[in-house]
Design a protein that fits this description.
It is a single chain. With 337 residues, this protein is an alpha+beta fold. Strands 8, 9, 10, 11, 12, 13, 14, 15 and 16 form a nine-stranded mixed β-sheet that branches. Strand 14 and strand 15 form a beta hairpin.
Length: 337
């Protein structure tokens, strides 16, 4: 497959949202999970085999870079990017935190580029990742940043579209190791989170809970943890936890359903005696928890509060909720001529 779609510095070009026909992609062959046909790199759509990482990049050597993950859902109106504006604003905040000078891509450019990447792969539902890396060199200063946008079909995670509850374990890693700063996608913050999740998986669990230095809940490695007690929803306060967009979504939707939301420090013991637990993240969506540290949560099934928030979450991302109009941006898939 040979795709080389030039786009100018503003992100406009054939195959971008509303600017010409989309690229034709062969859909006859079976596709493995996490497959992409083409990737957007610095204004150009390249075939997957043409996209290569620079082995001397400080992103690989020192973990200097940025990652933002966005979910695109198959709605009745076509592919819908959930809370795209919030994700792009957070990504650009991360660029500033890294100290990148003269970053040439605006929020409008990124919006068009994300749509173009989803179009080029002919995806109806996918995981979209914005990645900021740097050219060869021992440091960021003086080296040109590279921007890539990858759209991939995703693998189902615990509870994703199946209603299955997850099993958690508390990790020995602290949130400073795992990354509890304001921008959670800074690459250097991810290594310990990966190790915490790996330990959980080896123990037969789905996710790990991270505690801060005082022993209070900070987050899970793939999202924010919520506890339900006496009909109220509790979660760790800011600062000290990542400024999660999914966290904000769950808080807003819980309020829409009439539940009181309390930002309060939660101890490990409080998790053990909670009526319900659920986690929320970009990739995980809303996942009820049935056990933590091999102790059942409630009766070991998804509780009514978790189930209600989960139901409204999916109603919203699929374009059928009251907040969908402000939170879902649709990708126009032009006819293939």
């Amino acid at each position: 497959m040979n795709i080389r779609n030039q786009m100018n510095g503003t992100g406009h070009g054939p195959g971008s949202n509303g600017h010409g026909p989309a690229l034709v992609v062969n859909r006859t062959a079976p596709r493995p999970l996490f497959q992409s046909d083409c990737i957007w790199i610095d204004g150009e759509l390249l075939a997957l085999e043409e996209a290569a990482a620079q082995l001397l990049s400080p992103t690989l050597h020192y973990g200097v870079g940025l990652l933002e993950e966005i979910r695109c859902y198959a709605t009745e109106r076509g592919p819908g990017l959930f809370r795209l504006e919030a994700h792009l604003k957070r990504f650009l905040q991360g660029v500033k935190l890294l100290g990148v000078a003269d970053f040439r891509w605006t929020e409008a450019d990124l919006r068009r580029a994300v749509a173009a990447t989803v179009q080029a792969n002919s995806f109806q539902s996918c995981d979209v990742r914005l990645m900021l890396t740097f050219d060869d060199g021992p440091a960021v200063d003086g080296y040109e940043p590279r921007l890539a946008i990858i759209a991939q079909e995703w693998r189902l995670r615990p509870g994703d579209a199946r209603g299955q509850a997850a099993r958690l374990m508390v990790s020995s890693f602290t949130p400073t190791q795992a990354g509890a700063g304001p921008i959670a996608g800074l690459n250097g913050q991810q290594n310990s989170a990966v190790r915490a999740r790996s330990d959980a998986r080896r123990a037969g669990c789905d996710e790990a809970v991270l505690l801060d230095a005082g022993g209070y809940v900070a987050a899970c490695t793939g999202g924010t943890l919520f506890a339900v007690r006496d009909g109220a929803v509790y979660t760790a306060p800011r600062p000290g936890v990542p400024q999660g967009i999914s966290r904000d979504t769950a808080i807003v939707l819980a309020g829409d359903l009439g539940y009181e939301v309390v930002e309060e420090r939660l101890s490990r013991d409080e998790l053990y005696v909670a009526d319900e637990l659920f986690l929320c993240g970009t990739a995980a969506a809303v996942v009820p928890v049935r056990a933590i540290d091999f102790r059942p949560v409630g009766d070991g099934q998804a509780g009514p509060v978790s189930a209600a928030i989960r139901s409204l979450y999916f109603e919203t991302v699929y374009g059928r909720g009251a907040r969908s109009a402000g939170w879902v941006e649709y990708v126009m898939m032009e006819p293939l001529f």
